[in-house]
């Protein structure tokens, strides 16, 4: 399975912070925002990742990650010339994905909770069997999201993009696991009324084919969309609280790579030395003890 991170858009809701700086490079406490979605793909065991961003910002991600070798990964890059919808990311990734299954995640989403890795592995296995998996979350006010209607057995009944009168309080988060047919499905859908290729329409096609599964993220789980000033601050405060109290870092990509066996002790120490003047470098060095 290969992974896609959607890191485009203009980030207008975060102006003036994002007038000159890409939203996904803004800090969430002690690391760039894009570390968080990348860590999710890594926890799923995905080592080949495509970052899709704007012509203006793509070089900044290349400077941050390079080819990904220092993480034991292969990271590639693709330019999205205009923001024409999330499903366009699947089309742009066609040659990168090839014949593999694919996971796609939004570059401004933060996930945290117990038992997340087994959920990701399950979704990965479902893709091998021809299914798509969306991750759902209960929201008090779901109107601004893709709403998922689910029966008592967890079966998806319907999907609606930003409905005025939602049928449930469950929304689809920005994390999707697909089999390889998702690429052709994305190519077949038509732009919505707002002129975008909606990822909800891709998911609806899987639903029509009875190939859509929903993985609920329960009460003890945190899903944070960091697209506004308040949400960005909330996410930073959340990460700070967890890290200071527990002593573990959230979305530490070097730690995940090390635990996955993708990098060795020498590579981790090299990275710690680069970050030596920050608490982040000290944390990495502490992992070796």
TrEMBL record:
CDD domains: G1P_TT_short
Keywords on record: Magnesium, Metal-binding, Nucleotidyltransferase, Transferase
Required cofactor names: Mg(2+)
EC number: 2.7.7.24
Recorded catalytic activity of this chain's protein: dTTP + alpha-D-glucose 1-phosphate + H(+) = dTDP-alpha-D-glucose + diphosphate
Enzyme type, top EC level: transferase
GO molecular function, one term: glucose-1-phosphate thymidylyltransferase activity
Stretches assigned to the Nucleotidyl transferase domain: 2-240
Described purpose of this protein according to its UniProt entry: Catalyzes the formation of dTDP-glucose, from dTTP and glucose 1-phosphate, as well as its pyrophosphorolysis.
PANTHER family in alphabetical order: GLUCOSE-1-PHOSPHATE THYMIDYLYLTRANSFERASE (PTHR43532), GLUCOSE-1-PHOSPHATE THYMIDYLYLTRANSFERASE 1 (PTHR43532:SF1)
Family: Belongs to the glucose-1-phosphate thymidylyltransferase family.
Protein known as: Glucose-1-phosphate thymidylyltransferase
Source organism of the structure: Campylobacter vicugnae
Gene it is expressed from: rfbA
């Amino acid at each position: 399975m290969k992974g896609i991170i959607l890191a485009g858009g203009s980030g207008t809701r975060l102006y003036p912070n994002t007038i000159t700086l890409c939203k996904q490079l803004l800090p969430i406490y002690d690391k760039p925002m894009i570390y968080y979605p990348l860590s999710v793909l890594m926890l799923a065991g995905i080592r080949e990742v495509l970052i899709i961003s704007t012509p203006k910002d793509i070089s900044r991600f290349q400077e941050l990650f390079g080819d990904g070798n220092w993480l034991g990964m292969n990271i590639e890059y693709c330019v999205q010339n205009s923001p024409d919808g999330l499903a366009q990311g699947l089309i742009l990734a066609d040659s990168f994905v090839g014949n593999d299954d694919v996971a796609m995640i939004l570059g401004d989403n933060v996930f945290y909770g117990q038992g997340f890795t087994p959920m990701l592995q399950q979704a990965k296995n479902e893709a091998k069997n021809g299914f798509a998996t969306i991750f759902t979350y209960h929201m008090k006010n779901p109107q601004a999201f893709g709403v998922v209607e689910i029966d008592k057995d967890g079966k998806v009944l319907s999907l609606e993009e930003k409905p005025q009168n939602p049928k449930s309080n469950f929304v689809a988060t920005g994390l999707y696991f697909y089999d390889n047919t998702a690429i052709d499905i994305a190519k077949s859908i038509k732009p919505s009324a707002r002129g975008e290729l909606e990822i909800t329409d891709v998911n609806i096609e899987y639903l029509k084919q009875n190939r859509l599964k929903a993985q609920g993220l329960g009460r003890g789980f945190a899903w944070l969309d960091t697209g506004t000033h308040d949400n960005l601050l909330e996410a930073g405060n959340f990460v700070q609280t967890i890290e200071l109290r527990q002593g573990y870092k959230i979305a530490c990509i070097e730690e995940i790579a090390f635990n996955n066996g993708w990098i060795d002790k020498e590579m981790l120490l090299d990275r710690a030395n680069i970050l030596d003047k920050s608490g982040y470098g000290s944390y990495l060095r502490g992992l070796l003890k």
